[in-house]
């Protein structure tokens, strides 16, 4: 037989390995950049289209309203009208409640459900997402800015910094979206979000005890210990009237949630329950003059739509660190929550949403919101779920909600000034109880202990230290896990599945057969500086163990086949490691064979002359080809040895 050439054997039918010249740096960089920033290839439909069509499609891509509005029908509007009115009834009590949580005037919460939903309906890609304020971001903003400015002593400066934090958050979100950096949000894992939201919900529930009990003195700290300590310290301030009213409202709200869980078709009962509580509370407060009995009310709410807040933005270096911190943290949290929720409901309808377009939409609505007296908004789960269950079909539901909020601001806002604070506390507490996902935490414990630890780090860090620390602890553990996967990648020994040409992990398939005089190893990760040392030691250990095993069977190892199908990239340190492995094995008269190197890996091996060092005849397209090539090499050596004798 003729010698092996280019991964093949003369007289046999082999597919030859492609040893083409490496691409230019510009071509490789362009390809890598496209895969990094545009993994979904959003402009695939532009190819081969005339310029006017491309311009139209580009406009529809960047401004989604131009895609769905021309197809809009009266039938779709009837669904969206019902959904929009339903979520508006939820937006009013939530807006007032979460504004209270952020220690800003309640009217700001109503403003925040008017302008941002209009912006999202133009630029947002999710048909089901309902825009509004959220508890977690409200608490983060309050806790961060309170550290610099007291909201009671200097309410105007505090409010100005809240608007500034909203602007910073919006700019951050817009930059992430424009530069297609959605990958950064992916570092907030599902486990982290579950633990963070659960810890935040627990804190918020405890803080609402101030309103439920009618306490006058409370702590500005957000950790659980401080909150419990101040409640016990000021227990003599507890008003039984406020407590009774709060408990009644809370029981009613929880009962409506129970009804929705038992009969999903009655979702509207839970959806209108907060509005019922607010209206009932207003009537009760007006008739019973509850202020005389120690039950505080919201107070003055002015008529009119959002005034400009451009002049309120404050970039004083003395205070700027607080809104920057609050803006950056809430930007990431709001994006992770909003995009995850939007995708969840899109999947139910077998649809997809573009995370980067969502970032742009969130960024624009928060930037414009900061100019129009709004604070941070995203896509809250409760409102989006109500929107979906109410039958919304398009983003028009957000427009309907905005119109309802505009009418409320023009004509009805003063009526809500009688809303008891205890009613708002009950609404917030009821909403937060639904965010403590015990089932998910238990599922994590049963399925992945490390994910459970990440979840608990976020939960207990938020609950007992602070939200920032809890988030950093959890993200740090998640990154540590990712680094461990990177630095200690999996490798496996392959064997032949009997009566097939398939080779699989022998640990997973104990019935797989060893190949005489050959060790087949599969590498499943990039090879670079962080893991090259480990891979070298692991491969040499595989060889040592295999030599000992085969020696006991009267055999030896003459070829090590490295399956590079799962190696997506390699750096210079990785190539040097391969050189060291080859040198170490050749001392033992063991030859290294490479199978199926990917394009980027092959280019690096060619440029660094590694292919020249081992020879093209030791690079194969498949494991089967490599084994036949190794067998031919062994046979050829024996024939040569016989001729010499």
TrEMBL record:
InterPro entries linked to this entry: S04_transporter_CS, SLC26A/SulP_dom, SLC26A/SulP_fam, STAS_dom, STAS_dom_sf
Subcellular locations according to the entry: Membrane
Membrane topology classification: Multi-pass membrane protein
Main location: membrane
CDD domains per the UniProt record, alphabetical: STAS_SulP_like_sulfate_transporter (cd07042)
The name this protein goes by in its record: STAS domain-containing protein
One Pfam family cited in the UniProt record for this chain: Sulfate_transp
STAS domain residues: 508-630
Gene Ontology CC entries for this record: membrane
Keyword Transport: yes
Signal peptide: none
NCBIfam families hit by this protein: sulP (TIGR00815)
Regions crossing the membrane: 76-92, 129-145, 157-181, 187-206, 267-287, 326-347, 359-376, 396-415, 421-438, 450-480
Keyword Transmembrane on entry: yes
Annotated organism of origin: Lactuca virosa
Keywords (A to Z) from UniProt: Membrane, Transmembrane, Transmembrane helix, Transport
């Amino acid at each position: 037989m003729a010698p092996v050439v280019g991964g093949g054997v003369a007289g046999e039918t082999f597919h030859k390995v492609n040893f083409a010249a490496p691409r230019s740096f510009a071509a490789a960089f362009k390809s890598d950049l496209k895969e990094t920033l545009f993994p979904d290839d959003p402009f695939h439909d532009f190819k081969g289209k005339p310029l006017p069509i491309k311009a139209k499609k580009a406009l529809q891509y960047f401004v989604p309203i131009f895609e769905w509005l021309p197809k809009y029908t009266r039938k779709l509007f009837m669904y969206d009208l019902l959904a929009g009115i339903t979520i508006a009834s939820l937006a009013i009590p939530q807006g007032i409640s979460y504004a209270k949580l952020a220690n800003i005037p309640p009217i700001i919460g109503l403003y925040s459900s008017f302008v941002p939903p209009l912006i999202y309906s133009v630029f947002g890609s999710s048909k089901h997402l309902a825009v509004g304020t959220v508890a977690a971001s409200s608490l983060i903003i309050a806790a961060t800015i309170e550290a610099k400015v007291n909201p009671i002593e200097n309410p105007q400066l505090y409010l100005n910094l809240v608007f500034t934090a909203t602007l910073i958050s919006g700019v951050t979100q817009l930059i992430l979206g424009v530069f297609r950096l959605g990958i950064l949000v992916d570092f907030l894992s599902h486990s982290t979000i579950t633990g963070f939201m659960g810890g935040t919900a627990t804190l918020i529930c405890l803080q609402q005890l101030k309103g439920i009990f009618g306490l006058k003195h409370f702590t500005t700290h957000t950790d659980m210990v401080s909150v419990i300590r101040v409640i016990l310290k000021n227990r003599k301030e507890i008003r039984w009237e406020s407590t009774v009213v709060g408990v009644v409202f809370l029981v009613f709200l929880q009962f409506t949630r129970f009804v929705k869980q038992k009969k999903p078709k009655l979702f509207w009962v839970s959806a209108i329950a907060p509005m019922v509580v607010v209206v009932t509370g207003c009537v009760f407060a007006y008739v019973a003059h509850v202020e005389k009995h120690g039950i505080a009310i919201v107070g003055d709410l002015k008529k009119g739509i959002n005034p400009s807040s451009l002049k309120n933005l404050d970039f004083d270096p003395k205070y700027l660190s607080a809104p920057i911190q609050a803006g950056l943290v809430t930007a990431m949290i709001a994006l992770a929550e909003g995009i995850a929720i939007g995708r969840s409901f899109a999947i139910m309808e077998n649809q997809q949403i573009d995370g980067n377009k969502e970032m742009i939409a969130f960024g624009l609505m928060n930037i414009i919101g900061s100019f129009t007296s709004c604070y941070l908004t995203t896509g809250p789960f409760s409102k989006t779920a109500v929107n979906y269950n109410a039958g919304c079909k398009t983003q028009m539901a957000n427009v309907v909600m905005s119109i309802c909020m505009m009418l409320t601001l023009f004509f009805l806002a003063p009526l809500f000034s009688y809303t008891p604070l205890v009613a708002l506390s009950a609404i917030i507490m009821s909403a937060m109880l639904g965010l403590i996902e015990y089932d998910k935490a238990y599922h994590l414990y049963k399925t992945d202990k490390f994910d459970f630890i990440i979840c608990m780090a976020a939960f207990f860090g938020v609950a007992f230290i602070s939200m920032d620390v809890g988030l950093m602890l959890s993200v740090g553990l998640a990154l540590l896990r990712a680094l461990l996967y990177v630095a200690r990648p999996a490798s496996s020994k392959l064997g032949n599945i009997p009566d097939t040409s398939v080779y699989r992990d022998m640990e997973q398939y104990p019935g797989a057969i060893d190949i005489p005089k050959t060790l087949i190893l599969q590498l499943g990760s990039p090879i670079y500086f962080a893991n090259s040392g480990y891979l070298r030691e692991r491969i040499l250990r595989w060889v040592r163990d295999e030599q000992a095993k085969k020696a006991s069977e009267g055999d030896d190892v003459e070829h090590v086949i490295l399956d590079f199908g799962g190696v997506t990239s390699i750096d210079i340190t990785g190539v040097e490691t391969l050189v060291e492995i080859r040198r170490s094995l050749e001392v033992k008269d063991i030859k290294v064979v490479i199978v199926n190197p990917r394009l980027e890996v092959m280019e690096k091996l060619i440029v660094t002359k590694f292919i020249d060092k081992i020879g093209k005849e030791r690079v194969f397209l498949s494991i089967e080809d490599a084994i036949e090539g190794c067998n031919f090499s062994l046979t050829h050596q024996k024939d040569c040895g016989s001729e010499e004798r």
